[in-house]
Design a protein that fits this description.
CATH superfamily of the largest domain: Dihydrodipicolinate Reductase, domain 2
Number of strands: 14
Largest sheet: 8 strands, mixed
CATH architecture of the largest domain: 2-Layer Sandwich
Helix content: 25-40%
Radius of gyration: 20 Å
Number of helices: 12
Strand content: 15-25%
Strand order of the largest sheet: 13-12-11-7-10-9-8-14
Distance between the termini: 48 Å
Number of domains: 2
Order of helices and strands: EHEHEHEHEHEHEHHHEEEEEEHHEH
Oligomer: single chain
CATH topology of the largest domain: Dihydrodipicolinate Reductase, domain 2
Length: 354
């Protein structure tokens, strides 16, 4: 059995990670939970049948020696916790964003061994059967030409007031682009491949936060294909929408926080996913456990896990500088490599504060 531990006893751990492990109970088990609020850790352990609860990550790592650590804490805590787990020999599955910047992500990569342990980023929407089928079709649909990538969600003021770390550059790294839109962006990139140029705008239009509540971008891919990307938390009718136009077919996906095959449509007679597997934490975890058992690098790790973070870095860099940004510009010499806002604190228009 693969022995797994959860760090951060919050909603995402309870609603997504616990069910994901239970879906693979034949080969994985939860052995511990960690939370700085000891009572919360103990309550979580009692509710979900986890044998041990800890307040300190280091103490848990030493006592339990888990094979896999699931990091479900606020973003600003990720890099230190992921590195601690890797140094203890555990593989890591980390909620997005895994780091506040590419610089932090690369620090994590530097801690991985050639044969593991590895850190994989939670990006469950690319792992459903619809997305797998689309990638498997490859060139059968013709050359990729145009994509639409829209994450139009709604988060009210109360969402940001609920916990102190939300909506701040120092604790979340960025706003809706890196926290919400990145799901659809990751799926788009897994289909259309690497980007080459981004022209973007972003703004804080209505929410009482430091970071952006909306962003828009025009994107050119290395293949020459082009895309429009919209991300918002200001949209009362919520939707996650992806459209891929190939030379011979259009494929569309409409859903909100997860999909099955019924959420996909296509003009192609070739569209016929052989199975119906939902996009979910459980689906992604299955692939991660497969990789662990084979001793191979898992999906959404290393350069594969870095791709979406690099993309949002380019988007922020264009939005803050007001000019096109090419992929090769996102290097350690760029201020945006180190902070998604490039150290520019006053770009967005001010809104009311709580």
């Amino acid at each position: 059995m693969i022995r797994a531990a959860i760090v951060g006893a919050g909603a995402i751990a309870a609603h997504s990670h616990v069910p994901a492990v239970r879906a693979h109970r034949d080969r994985a088990e939860l052995v511990a939970v960690v939370d700085v609020a000891e009572d919360k850790a103990k309550s979580f352990a009692a509710e979900h049948g986890v044998p041990a609860a800890y307040r300190e990550l280091g103490e848990m790592l030493e006592a339990e020696r888990p094979d896999l650590v699931m990091v479900c804490t606020p973003p600003h805590l990720h890099v230190a916790q992921v590195i601690a787990a890797l140094r203890a020999g555990a593989w890591v599955w980390c909620e997005k964003p895994a780091a506040l910047s590419l610089a932090e992500y690369d620090l994590i990569q530097a801690e991985e061994g050639a044969a593991g342990p590895y850190m994989s980023v939670v990006c469950q929407q690319r792992f459903g059967s619809g997305a797998e089928h689309l990638r498997a079709l490859g060139g059968a649909l013709g050359r990729p030409l145009v994509a639409l990538c829209q994450t139009t969600w709604h988060r009210g003021d109360d969402y940001y007031y609920a916990v102190p770390y939300r909506g701040k550059w120092a604790t979340e790294g960025g706003g809706t682009t890196v926290l919400h839109g990145v799901h659809q962006m990751d799926l788009m990139l897994s289909v259309f491949g690497d980007w080459s140029e981004i022209r973007a705008m972003a703004g804080r239009l209505d929410r009482p936060i430091e970071t952006e509540d909306v962003s828009m971008a025009m994107v050119r891919f290395a293949s020459g294909a082009m895309a429009s990307v919209v991300t918002s938390v200001l949209s009362p009718r919520e939707e996650s929408y992806l459209r891929f136009d190939f030379a011979a077919a259009t494929v569309e996906l409409r859903h909100l926080y997860g999909y099955r095959n019924e959420h996909w449509t296509s003009t192609s007679p070739l569209w016929n996913p052989p199975e119906d597997v939902p996009s979910s934490h459980a689906t992604q975890l299955g692939g991660l456990l497969d990789a662990y058992e084979r001793g191979e690098r898992p999906p959404a790790s290393g350069t594969d896990g870095r791709r979406a973070m690099e993309f949002v870095t380019g988007l922020y860099a264009s939005a803050f500088t007001g000019r096109p940004v090419r992929r090769e510009e996102i290097t350690p010499e760029s201020p945006f490599y180190h902070r998604l806002n490039g150290g520019i604190e006053t770009f967005f228009e001010a809104t009311a504060t709580p």
